[in-house]
Design goal:
CATH topology: TIM Barrel
Shape: globular
Strand order of the largest sheet: 7-6-14-13-12-11-10-9-8
Number of helices: 16
Distance between the termini: 33 Å
Strand content: 15-25%
Largest sheet: 9 strands, parallel
CATH architecture: Alpha-Beta Barrel
Radius of gyration: 20 Å
Length: 385
């Protein structure tokens, strides 16, 4: 439904995950009978989660731990782990810097060039643990570093930016031809982000096995404030899921929709999947883990842009180990730990046995959730951290 903004401009009403709720069905199900399994290309995972390739969240060690817990950690190949052989002192500097200088320090430490040998070594470190290796690059650096990562044993490549399009136009540089690159890639490729039906449709046609959906919803992102660009996450996911259905009908090929950002609780993860996501990519919820390299701080990939930072370093309270955050047990009732236990319980409570069934769940507009007799305590607990 179009709403008039003024004479000459109308807009569609969109919805965030906090504005909807999942409707129970006539059936409930035993949680032990719910299957959270997710398959991306040839790789199967017991939890539908990707660890976001952010230096505050994913180190080689936490990538490995997420893999052992059933998910897929993604290492940032343009981050601190490929710029410094020992990034420990750099983390210490970022963490200890006062807030008013944090962005300047991030810009400074990320000026260090990427080391090609470290790209290969970090991938090999994950492979040596016997796990599926996944890593991310921006479109601008894909051609330069992807061959090194693949040679080292990379299993899956994520090409990620604030917005990634299938048709980038430039009069100054030769842009990455996504369709050509993916067709020739020896490993499956996930691309994103996107936030509309049209963008999702075009990215699916590049041959990607999955697309990341989300422009600016993350806790450390300032994209919407800096650029004014983005679509609320519930609508963005539903639009991408609609594009997936149409693309499947046309080609017979299923492309996975991965909700990227904007989810803080198990309930929000459940709602993202009920809107049509196959899996979720998490940043700040995993940055709250005891093992997270950011040690209670979190920053995004655009936080250190040399001329226009579109993120900030934020503090996140430590909530438990990665295991406790992902699969429990939870000792608090705020929904921020045992995230996938909560997803399992949400699916069992509403009667669904697997992810593909749950994507068809009925949802309703529920903007009054935080004021239904419990607004004060929940508003305090669910503040973005």
């Amino acid at each position: 439904m179009q709403i008039d903004i003024g004479i000459g401009k109308s807009a569609r009403r969109v919805y965030g995950l906090d504005e909807i709720a999942i409707v129970p069905t006539r059936r409930t199900r035993d949680p032990d009978d719910v299957d959270l399994g997710w398959q991306l290309d040839a790789y199967r995972f017991s939890a539908p989660v990707m660890g976001a390739p952010m230096d505050s969240t994913m180190s080689p060690a936490t990538v490995i731990e997420v893999g052992r817990l059933g998910g897929l950690g993604v290492l940032n190949l343009q981050g601190l782990w490929t710029r410094y052989r020992d990034p420990g002192p750099i983390y210490d500097e970022i963490i200890s810097t006062p807030s008013d200088r944090a962005t300047a320090v991030l810009q400074e430490v990320y000026r260090e060039p990427i080391k090609r040998d470290l790209v290969g070594e970090r991938i090999q470190q994950i492979r040596d643990a016997g796990l599926i290796s996944a890593a991310s690059l921006t479109p601008q650096n894909t051609l330069q570093y992807a061959p090194t990562a693949v040679e080292a044993g990379l299993d899956l490549l994520v090409i990620q930016g604030t917005v990634v399009s299938a048709e980038h136009v430039s009069t100054r540089t030769e842009p990455l031809n996504l369709k050509k690159f993916i067709a020739e890639s020896p490993v499956p490729v996930v691309v994103g982000g996107c936030s509309s039906y049209s963008m999702a449709s075009h990215l699916m046609r590049t041959g990607a096995v999955g697309i990341l959906v989300g422009v600016g919803p993350g806790a450390a992102s300032a994209t919407r404030g800096s650029l004014g660009v983005g679509v609320s996450q519930a609508t963005a996911i539903a639009d991408a899921a609609g594009a997936r259905v149409q693309y499947l009908l046309e080609t017979g090929r299923y492309v996975h929709v991965i909700a990227d950002g904007g989810m803080r609780t198990g309930g929000e993860i459940a709602k993202a999947i009920a809107c049509g996501a196959d899996a979720v990519m998490l940043g700040s919820p995993l940055a709250a883990a005891r093992e997270a390299p950011g040690s209670g701080f979190h920053w995004g990939m655009s936080s250190f842009h040399p001329s226009l930072p579109r993120g900030s370093r934020i503090q996140v309270p430590t909530r438990g180990t990665l295991r406790e955050i992902m699969i429990g047990p939870a000792v608090e009732s705020d929904g921020r730990t045992n995230l996938f236990g909560a997803l399992r319980r949400s699916m069992s409570t509403t009667g669904y046995s697997n992810i593909s069934e749950f994507q068809k769940a009925e949802v309703v507009i529920a903007p009054t959730f935080l004021t239904e007799g419990k607004g004060f305590p929940l508003t305090d607990q669910l503040e973005t951290g």
